[in-house]
Amino acid sequence: MIGALVLVACGAVQNFAGIHEVGQFTGGSQQWNGGAVASQEVIKELGTNGGGYFNANSAHPFENPNGLSNLFEIFLILAIPFALTRTFGRMVGSLRQGYALRP
Q1: For a FRET experiment, which of 18, 53, 75, 93 has its CA 20 to 30 Å from that of 83?
Q2: Nearest alpha carbon to residue 52 among 40, 35, 62
Q3: Comparing C-alpha atoms, which of 35, 34, 39 is closest to residue 6?
Q4: CA distances from residue 34 to 19, 53, 86, 92, 101 in whole angstroms, order as listed
Q5: pLDDT single digits (tens) 26-77
């Protein structure tokens, strides 16, 4: 939940609306998709699952709007692998062995 709030603060979309009709400067209109993007993005990054809400692997600007959100998503991707090295050290009874496994 905290990760989703961070992504929303960075500008990721999080709403329960469907498709939005958006006007253009040239007089035409365009349809933009809304949805629960930020919350699904955090789940995707922590579990390293799938291609994302818009099927673009975090390359869509509604999923990853700026550099700070990109840095946060990289942190989410690396959180579990780095935690597992410490877990190994605790399981064998020597934290130094877990730290030796870190890249």
Answers
A1: 53
A2: 40
A3: 39
A4: 6, 10, 39, 47, 42
A5: 888 888 888 888 998 999 988 877 778 888 888 888 888 999 999 999 999 9
**Position 68, amino acid:** L
| DSSP3 helix / strand / coil % (the chain, rounded to 5) | 50, 10, 40
Tell me the C-alpha distance between 73 and 59, whole Å. Answer: 12
Tokens of 62: 């509604």
CA angle 43, 49, 50 (to 5 degrees): 115
**Max Cα separation, the chain?**
67
d(CA 10, CA 85): 30
Q: Can you give the pTM of this predicted structure?
A: 0.78
Q: Which amino acid is at 52?
A: G
Taking residues 19-30, report their average pLDDT: 86
Q: Nearest Cα to 36, choosing from 7, 63, 15? A: 15
